[in-house]
Amino acid sequence: MMAARRRREDAPAHYELRLYVAGSTLKSRTAFENLERICEERLPGRCHIQVVDLLKNPRSAKDDQIVAVPTVVRKAPPFSKRVIGDMSNADRVISGLDLTGRKPGWI
Questions:
Q1: Given this model, what pLDDT does residue 11 score?
Q2: Does residue 102 register a pLDDT over 80?
Q3: CATH superfamily to which 2-80+90-97 belongs
């Protein structure tokens, strides 16, 4: 069982991120570009960013309890995490979303 546990903890994770924005503003575009750059540098080929425009889909904010934009929510791997802002502070985004590149270990 220890070998299976070790393999799971060391396996690379695939990240599903949802970026909530309000229209195509400079702040929204900057947040997407910064997040995309972080993913390409830190998790090449292992990150998918879904952009949700709350001006077009206002009900989408309810599911993830969005109160400010731009906000990015990590949907996978499990346990949801979020960061609010333009994603310009890469260390804050990496830490806040726990973008370690490894799947969460077993407890």
A1: 63
A2: no
A3: Glutaredoxin (3.40.30.10)
